[in-house]
């Protein structure tokens, strides 16, 4: 292949040298008008020529949110993109993204392309906003046609910053701030816990009052003499520092342009423990994350025929966290914080240590003292190295015919992750005696390993033709690309793809546009001979504002209608549990050893190995296909108001599903077939208005997007009744029982059995205060056949954002609100919701529990909002039902910023063209019914809390 | 222009070479780390692995339902936990959408599929065994492998017969699947169910055609290490049981006596066939079931084996024993059935009883888990404690005493699927129905003699069932039913016996009872009967399991649901 390219380039060089023309083009194909350009895979188009539904946001806008992960800057900026917040844990705070909601119940992830080459989440998630020019989402068939089997779930298209023609500008930005949790879902103190515990233990005693904590003990908790440890206060600080900064050099001339970005970010976690230096003996560490990014984008001309681009982007990520706490390991610290009651033991056991805090408390039931977990177990650190190198060459073949060009490119992406672990343990004491077999040890270097290595090479070859003949204008290209990924894992050791794609865009008189795109995509996941798919798309646009009746209209400056229809594919899929290959290689029959046969004589000591099929092979397994329909319009009114609207429908078919329609005498074997169907519909609406009134400049923008899906066919196990089914409902709809209040004492006979006429629940014995369920099939028992839809999926169907900015005399103010709705939160997934079960803890929500002890003056029968408390496992109350579903709607101020830019006279003496100081708040205010009523964050329900921060920053541009 | 067109040509060829330079097998990245259809035929040990997988669906009886014995489903026992799966059976609410034991259908058909596949795969087995070996210089190894393969093939037929026998016991008529289906289209696979009698005939045919290829008795052969595989003895025992069930009232409404005769002949084959040499365990009834005694004994015909574990002890030790969970609690219905062998003791109703009571059941006042069980209020095993037995009794049969569960103590717990004692009782039942209690019909024992063998092993002081006590078929039948209830308690026979005798409609609709214990003085308690739970059994529907709703729907009308569902 190398020889071929050299032959080729040699040939072109010879031909070009013959030419006398030395007209200098710009590298991009653009009109003279500096109009917004819509990115596309093979070529970009000016906005008026594009028939695609694409939303973009610039890197400068994303820079407004100071946070290490770029996914957390995307809130409210792209209509059609839902961003679901993850945790706030440094290094693990990546948000989940969905483009146009959920389209499939299989694998729903989008693909990411940086500068025309595919990258994975590992590379994208921690890019710096300073190195990004724009991020766009490609949503409809017109933009996704050329992506073949990668396009069905939408594409995130990232373009990095390139140099400009002009004097070198040096820009320096930095900011620093404090981050704190948006909220902490804290349990009750020792008094509240003990009070409710007495109720629980009495409920388990047949509703006979039998308290564990005497009034004297309760009194001690109240007046502070009893053990009352606020574990959250002990472990979690209110502030963690965040700093980031970047330095970029950009400039160039017609022959060479460059853009160099150096970026740094450091985030400290919230744990109340110091970062001891490596050489010290104590060796504790706060959770922290640091990243260093470097990007160099060069454009230069070679031999006056080639336009070359060399882009190198590299990154180092360093993560460190106390052992046991973070997403590296088990992440159990936060569930301990929620579940360890406040009265179990003091943090340190001071018996026999003369008041020194050297012995951690701990018992066999509660062995993991939260303070000990962050300071006594050592730490783990993890280093990631990313390197992305893209090279491309473009040759103008105008000597053959004007407008013809050739483009070749190659990308190399390497990823390495290694970990280093220093572990220690500590002995647990109660009253001077150890309670478990752990001993206190110092930190030892315990393991070091290379965790993951990935190597991704891609190359492409494009032949393009752009030409204007009077009123006709054509932009077209044909492309061949292949990609070879080598990674970890049995099934993803080698992933190879090939894609032959092309696009033709024809515009007539700047008024009527038609476009056809296609991709012929081959993948290694399916049987040879069955692994290529053809994905065409057609689209068109009509620019109304160029028509004679609107051409001179004062109000309507630009009005375009567009529509597209096409097919796209998705090659990732679910797979059998014993062969978790993401849908790859299911055409091949495999046999594996599953059970053992014991043959021994006196004691079975030998087992004969067995072989059984792992699954039944399906030679016709193929990618799911997505038929996308989209109609949209873009309008500019009054020169300042732009409105954009899209309505879409995505019909998925061929979703790889386990076939549950095979008869039982197939045994326990599973077979996966492409039979699933799903429909996803929705709309997006966005608008922005900017203007100036005297010295005040202002802008307002807003967007709304909505997407709802229905599973049309899932081949689920035939349910007993139609209302049990998941088919016909949205993906992720919780299926559970319908509740009907609580059992009252009048519902029971004297001997504890239910009175006649009440259905018997088959989940366990019930008593007054338990949740009563409806018997939907009226057969007298409440069991798994009485389940139905009880809430909405956990991913919001409605996303909206609005914001504005103001500037006056150097001051600028901007604010962005973002909200979501249409989802349900299942309270049972909140830690501690089950109360005392399994030695858990009590929370304010349990203060509304049903209880009836007239002798103690306790009677909540009429006002109860929570079932009766218990210390035993209870299958009846703690199961999915509409009792535990709450609305997850929220509205947040995502960022708010106030800044001042010094006037150019003041700073030009310092050779600066811009100096701006600002203060900035991220997530300062949240409105949500979950937060207000229960103090539960609507998006980050458990684990490390999401963060809000207040920052101050400076921007300086030197010329 | 000429030069340019030449250069254009160079350009185009360069382009073409570029495309051609790409590898043809670029999209072939599969790495086979598991066996594929191509690789299994290169390794002759796969033959034996597929053979072994025919046994994969044998069920461990100690984990039949709720990870415990199946006994809680019948009137033998009441499961302590309030939310167990036996509740579905006890309340008679079993239906196509709610059958906790419904997974057995797919599991047994999985075994049948494994047998069908193996039989197909081993058609050229002997040539396959000659692969990659020098059969001239290593004749012994080759001959051994061929012999082993021949046994496995015969055993595979028996496995399949066993699975069908289990399926018809649970479901009545079931589809007979003749071969392994590999296809992706299920429409060609819609097999209707065959009637019960056809499947019985199929099972008997399979056994009769293949019993010649089986090892006669592994324990006495040179290959004792294969004792966990089917042998002639276990095949004949399977045949005897299938024919007995086919002769029982549920499947034999006209009481065709020839069926009973066939059953008696089959049972006699187990007793009398040369080389089998089964004999009752002589070390005591209780000890037979504990530890490794069963698999070392000549009474065991076939046992389903597992490594040492403490599942049955963890599930069934009293809650007061650390690690115990009280699971299966025998009912007073069963305790009352144990006969007296001496005078009634007014202070201790459990004294002077059939010794199998003390061997099978932990009663109040007895010694168990290193303590005297005291279930009175305030005692060590106070019945008012959460999760204490609600009937006043705990399980003793099968359990090794004094296992330290907290420290993970284990014992050998092998599930005996066929034993000689039960074969004798089958023989007695069939002979009685076929020929009467005292007619040996030329076989080794009469019904009465066979029964006496079992009773004598249980205790020398158990009185014999003389002619005066049970002179005719009907009265002897009652005696047999009683003996099965006692001898085979908790061994997963009671429920199926009640069903096949069609006695379940009365017996399983009666409430289960227990005793409430009150302390009178040290070592002396008084007992009052209590009702523990009501039971419901919907005859005639509940005589068979329903096919799952999913299966009926998926069969597109080919599979007819059992009556009553």
Please state the CA-atom Rg of chain A, rounded to the nearest Å.
32 Å
Envelope shape of chain A? globular
**How much β-strand is present in the residues of chain B?**
5-15%
With strands numbered from the N-terminus, the spatial order across the biggest sheet of chain B is 2-4
Rough shape of chain B? globular
Largest sheet: number of strands, sense, barrel closure of chain B = 2 strands, antiparallel
Using only C-alpha atoms, the radius of gyration of chain B works out to 29 Å
Give the end-to-end Cα distance of chain A, rounded to a whole number of Å: 44 Å
Please, how many helices of chain A?
12
Query: Helical element count of chain B?
Result: 20
Task: State mean pLDDT of chain A (0 to 100 scale).
Answer: 88
Q: Output the structural class of chain B.
A: mainly alpha
Distance between the termini of chain B: 88 Å
Pair with the biggest interface: A-B, 89 and 87 residues
Helix content of chain A: under 10%
For the secondary structure, the number of strands of chain A is 49
Characterize the structure shown.
The complex is a heterodimer of chains A (959) and B (565). Chain A is mostly beta strands and 959 residues long. Helices cover 9% and strands 44% of the residues of chain A. Chain B has 565 residues and is mainly alpha-helical. In chain B, 39% of the residues lie in helices and 8% in strands. Chain B has a two-stranded antiparallel ribbon with strand order 2-4. The longest helix of chain B is centred in the N-terminal third of the chain and has 33 residues, at 139-171. Chain B is globular. Classes of the chains: A mainly beta (959), B mainly alpha (565).
